[in-house]
Design a protein that fits this description.
Largest sheet: 7 strands, mixed
Pfam family, one: TPP_enzyme_N
Helix content: 25-40%
CATH class of the largest domain: Alpha Beta
Protein name: pyruvate decarboxylase
Strand order of the largest sheet: 9-8-7-10-11-12-13
Radius of gyration: 24 Å
Distance between the termini: 69 Å
CATH architecture of the largest domain: 3-Layer(aba) Sandwich
Organism: Gluconacetobacter johannae
Bound molecules: the ligand Cc1ncc(Cn2nnc(CCOP(=O)(O)OP(=O)(O)O)c2C)c(N)n1, magnesium ion
Cofactor: Mg(2+); thiamine diphosphate
Strand content: 15-25%
Number of domains: 3
CATH superfamily of the largest domain: Thiamin diphosphate (ThDP)-binding fold, Pyr/PP domains
Family: Belongs to the TPP enzyme family.
Length: about 575
């Protein structure tokens, strides 16, 4: 059997730990798909469309560290670009591979199908370059190994998406075999002197402060800094909070964990502590208009250390060229044995006498948001992953207390509604042994619902809580208007449509707490496919956090143009 360019790509993807890749067929990628099918231990998983294919690979990357999607030229790739933009925003190495025109057509003046109708086909890779850390076009077999390795190596190193375009007549061409996988896994070491100087500068910063707190951000995962953050928290003995998008990136049963810091949408007591602290260590934080609640909750200035993936900034100094993972470990070692900075925990315990707003039980009455959230929260085990969609689902998830090992996935920086359904599919393909739960609003679901059919096809026992509050409630709380109303669907009834007489998906409508509880019991018993539980609640029955957050975001959006 001839060893081909497509097999080189497939072997490299397998070598970096992918057992699956996601695809939608198109005549520019069919020969490539054939090559990938030849790779032992690599399964080709099909999606309903290329947007969902991209998001499935993104969800897979959240579980496995990287993901790959194969699409056809332009009509496929440009849809998938939305998921690539999301992967860039969320620091995920998604490898998008697009079939491309025959290499002989370049410069021929030929007008080809699936293009914008000009003989210049370079527009696609030019678009890709803006939303990836590496983008390559392969029109000959000789150049394929180096270009494929460059794209994969850069994506893994930068934790950003990469793009590979392969001419349809090259994918099956003879190619050399790859060398050791270390060629694409190698990392650039951090600078030792910079690391030491940064540690000393932070130690000096802390020595002058008593009211210290740690804020964990979403880039901590991309930096592989989870263990280092716990070691630093142990060394300091201070309060630790997570930003909303970093929920589950720090263990919530940690004794000094005080919940989510999100301005007015914070967990009880957390906002007060960060307002009160005189020394805040921000670890991998992303401060955007949503995460700062319309710029009203943005730790910065002389009392803040910003420790990012490769750079530390504090007190007018900057230390670039280190790895956050190394910094956390070295700083924890440097602070070992020093007096603890427990002032923030002492203060926190003083002010949180009032219990957190626990969602109360009302099993028989009309279903409420609180009862829905309570029943979902009760399902969280150490082996659970909860994917929470843009919408009030963010805020419902924020209130949930996680057992150690439970994971939460958001897409808060990009915030593409509908992401959670295909991302759940990809995540479930990657992690079939975990309990996987999705919380998605009716508005979001309508963008990507088809991928539930793929969950039926593969018999994935995912539990999808469809929050039917009759419209775009998160938008209502920002700025209401007729555009926030949507056509209602029979969401639970969709499952029979997707089953088509053979699938094992199940659908339930819950209008009371008791109906929801019964549906949950059935879902836990359904191991042969997804269970969609449509939770019917009032349109304005949303979390108090969403209301205040929505006001702040609306105010930020309404700022008049600068003079
Ligand atoms: C692709 C995309 N298009 C539009 C938006 C704006 N947007 N953000 N949230 C929404 C509404 C979400 O509504 P649901 O999913 O029903 O959520 P809730 O009602 O808040 O539970 C929109 C329309 C968006 N975030 N992403
Ligand atoms: Mg809704």
């Amino acid at each position: 059997m001839t060893y081909t360019v497509g097999m080189y790509l497939g072997d490299r993807l397998k070598q970096i730990g992918l057992d699956h890749h996601f695809a939608v067929a198109g005549d520019y990628n069919l020969v490539l798909l054939d090559q990938l099918l030849k790779i032992d231990g690599m399964e080709q998983v099909y999606c309903c469309n290329e947007l969902n294919c991209g998001y499935s690979a993104e969800g897979y990357a959240r579980a496995k560290g990287a993901g790959a999607a194969i699409v056809t030229f332009s009509v496929g790739a440009i849809s998938a670009f939305n998921a690539v933009g999301g992967a860039y925003a969320e620091n995920l190495p998604l490898i998008l591979i697009s079939g491309a025109p025959n290499s002989n057509d370049h410069g021929s003046g030929h007008i080809l199908h699936h293009t914008i109708g000009t003989p210049d086909y370079a527009y696609q890779i030019e678009m890709a370059r803006r939303i990836t850390c590496a983008a390559v076009s392969i029109i000959s077999a000789d150049e394929a190994p180096a270009k494929i390795d460059h794209a994969i190596r850069t994506a893994l190193r930068e934790r950003k998406p990469a793009y590979i375009e392969i001419a349809c007549n090259v994918a099956g061409a003879a190619c050399a075999r790859p060398g050791p996988v270390s060629a694409v896994l190698s990392q650039v070491p951090g600078d030792a002197a910079t690391l030491e100087a940064a540690v000393e500068a932070i130690a000096a910063f802390l020595a002058k402060r008593d009211k210290v707190a740690i804020l964990v951000g979403s880039k901590l995962r991309a930096a592989d800094g989870g263990e280092g953050a716990v070691a630093l928290a142990d060394a300091l003995g201070c309060a630790v909070a997570t930003m909303a998008a970093a929920k589950s990136f720090f263990p919530e049963n940690y004794p000094n964990y005080i919940g989510t810091y999100w301005g007015e949408a914070s967990s009880p007591g957390a906002r007060e502590i960060f307002d009160w602290a005189d020394g805040i260590l921000c670890l991998g934080c992303v401060f955007n208009d949503y995460s700062t609640v319309g710029w009203t909750a943005w730790p910065r200035g002389a009392n803040v250390v910003q420790a990012d993936i490769g750079t530390v900034t504090l007190d007018g100094q900057v230390f670039d060229g280190l790895h956050l993972k190394d910094l956390l470990t070295a700083l924890a070692a440097r602070l070992a044995g020093q007096p603890k900075k427990g002032g923030t925990m002492t203060e926190y315990r003083r002010i949180v006498g009032a219990p957190a707003p626990v969602d109360s039980a009302a099993p028989t009455a009309k279903l409420t948001r609180a009862e829905m959230a309570r029943q979902i929260g009760a399902l969280l085990t150490p082996e659970t992953t909860l994917l929470a969609e843009t919408g009030d689902s963010w805020f419902n998830a924020m209130r949930m207390k996680l057992p150690q090992g439970a994971r939460v996935e958001f897409e808060m920086q990009w915030g593409h509604i509908g992401w959670s359904v295909p991302a759940t599919f990809g995540y479930a393909v990657a992690e079939p042994k975990r309990r996987i739960i999705t919380m998605v609003g009716d508005g979001s679901f309508q963008l990507t619902a088809q991928e539930v059919a793929q969950m039926v096809r593969r018999g994935l026992p995912v539990i999808v809580f469809l929050v039917n509050n009759h419209g775009y409630t998160i938008e209502v709380e920002i700025h209401d208007g007729p555009y926030n109303n949507i056509k209602n669907w029979d969401y639970a009834g969709l499952i029979e449509v997707f089953n088509a007489g053979e699938g094992k998906g199940r659908g339930f409508r819950a209008t009371t707490g008791a109906e929801m509880a019964e549906a949950v019991r059935a879902a836990l018993d359904n191991h042969g496919g997804p269970t969609l539980i449509e939770c019917i609640i009032d349109r304005d029955d949303c979390t108090s956090e969403l209301i205040s957050w929505g006001r702040r975001v609306a105010t930020a959006n309404a700022r008049p143009p600068a003079k």
